[in-house]
Write a structure and sequence with these properties.
about 10% strand, 2 domains, alpha+beta, 13 helices, globular, Chitinase A, domain 3, 3-stranded antiparallel beta sheet
C-alpha cells in the first residue's frame, strides 16, 4: 500500500520554527539548530492520529534536507529575489490569519518559545532550498537506459497483499485473527489472488494485478520491512497504521516475462530516483567541501514522544 506523504516542502517548512526556548536540539546543520519545540509546531496536529512516529521521521528528514540546501546557497552564489521575499511575507501573513490574527499567533509562538521572526527566517530558508535545488539539478545528466535498467533491478521489489483495515468497526483482535487465518490459508496452498479479491480492503490492489512494484520509501515502513524479510513466494503478516497486511513477496528479475513491461511502466519514476540520488550525493559532497556539518541527535528524537506535544496553534474559528 502506497504511503501518504507529508505536505510540499515549502508548506512543511513554513510550520517549522527555530525557537530559543529550553527544548533540546534535535537537529543542526551548520549553525542552524532545530529543537523539539520547533518540531511540535507541525507535529502537534498529529496527536491521536496513530501516525506520530512516521510523521516525525518524515518531517525531520525534510527539515534536514531543507537546511542542507539553505546552507549551500552562499557557496553556490544563490540569492533570492524581491518577488520571492514578497511570497514569504504573504505566507507569514496567511499563517497569522489562520491563527486568529497576528497578535494571537505571536502570543502562541512566544508561549512555546518561538517568534514571528523565526517563522519568517524559515520561510526564507525554504525559498533558498528551492533555488539551490534548481541550481544543482542543472548539472545532473539524464540517466542512460543501462543505468535505469540496473537501478530498477537492484533497488525495486514486487509483492501482493491482503489488507485487513482496522479503521472500521472490526476490533484490533478480530483483524489480527482474520489476517492470521488468511495467512494460514495462503501457506496451505489457497489461491492468493482469490483471497485478495475476496478479502482485501486495499483499492490499489485492483489496479496492480502484478502486485506492487516499489522501492525504498514508496510504501509504509512496516510493509517494506516485511517484504525484504521474505524469500520469493513466501508469506507473512505485518501491522501498519492501515491495519494488518498478509503479504507475499513475488519474483522480480530480468527472467520474468513481464520485466520489460514493468520497466517501461516505471521508467519515469526510476529515472527521477536516479537523478535524485545523484543530487543528494552532490549535496553531501558540497557540504563536505564547505565544512558544513550535519548532526541529528537520535537520542533526543527517540525521547521526543507524542505525549510531549503541545496544543496546536489556535485558529480563527476557535478564537471566536
Amino acid at each position: 500500500m502506497k504511503k501518504i506523504g507529508l505536505a510540499a516542502v515549502l508548506t512543511t517548512a513554513a510550520l517549522l520554527l527555530s525557537s530559543c526556548g529550553s527544548a533540546e536540539v534535535a537537529l543542526q546543520v551548520g549553525d542552524k539548530k532545530v529543537t523539539t519545540a520547533d518540531l511540535s509546531i507541525f507535529l502537534a496536529s498529529e496527536a491521536g492520529s496513530g501516525q506520530f512516529e512516521e510523521s516525525k521521521d518524515q518531517f525531520v528528514e525534510q527539515v534536514e534536507d531543507m537546511l542542507k540546501y539553505e546552507a549551500l546557497a552562499p557557496a553556490l552564489g544563490v540569492e533570492i529575489s524581491d518577488e520571492d521575499m514578497q511570497q514569504v511575507v504573504q505566507m507569514k501573513a496567511s499563517y497569522a490569519q489562520q491563527a486568529g490574527g497576528l497578535k494571537a499567533y505571536k502570543e502562541y509562538l512566544e508561549s512555546i518559545g518561538s517568534s514571528i521572526d523565526a517563522l519568517e527566517d524559515i520561510l526564507t530558508a525554504s525559498v533558498y532550498q528551492s533555488e539551490v535545488y534548481s541550481k544543482i539539478s542543472e548539472d545532473i545528466e539524464e540517466p542512460t537506459d543501462d543505468e535505469i535498467k540496473t537501478y530498477f533491478k537492484d533497488n525495486y521489489y514486487r509483492a501482493k497483499h491482503i489488507l485487513i483495515s482496522t479503521e472500521g468497526d472490526i476490533s484490533e483482535d478480530e483483524a489480527q485473527t482474520k489476517a492470521n487465518d488468511l495467512l494460514a490459508q495462503a501457506e496451505g496452498g489457497a489461491d492468493f489472488d482469490t483471497l485478495i479479491a475476496e478479502n482485501s480492503e486495499d483499492p490499489g490492489s485492483e489496479s496492480n494485478p502484478d502486485g506492487y512494484i516499489f522501492t525504498d520509501g514508496d510504501m509504509v515502513p512496516e510493509f517494506e520491512e516485511c517484504v525484504k524479510s521474505l524469500g520469493e513466494g513466501e508469506f507473512n503478516v505485518c501491522k501498519s497504521t492501515y491495519g494488518y497486511h498478509v503479504i507475499q513477496r513475488l519474483p522480480f528479475s530480468e527472467n520474468e516475462e513481464k520485466f520489460n513491461e514493468w520497466l517501461e511502466d516505471n521508467k519515469t519514476s526510476v529515472s527521477s530516483a536516479i537523478k535524485q540520488k545523484k543530487i543528494e550525493e552532490k549535496v553531501d559532497s558540497l557540504l563536505a567541501e564547505n565544512n558544513i556539518t550535519v548532526t541529528v541527535n537520535e537520542d533526543v528524537l527517540e525521547a521526543y514522544t507524542e505525549d510531549k506535544l503541545p496544543d496546536p496553534a489556535p485558529t480563527a474559528d476557535t478564537m471566536n
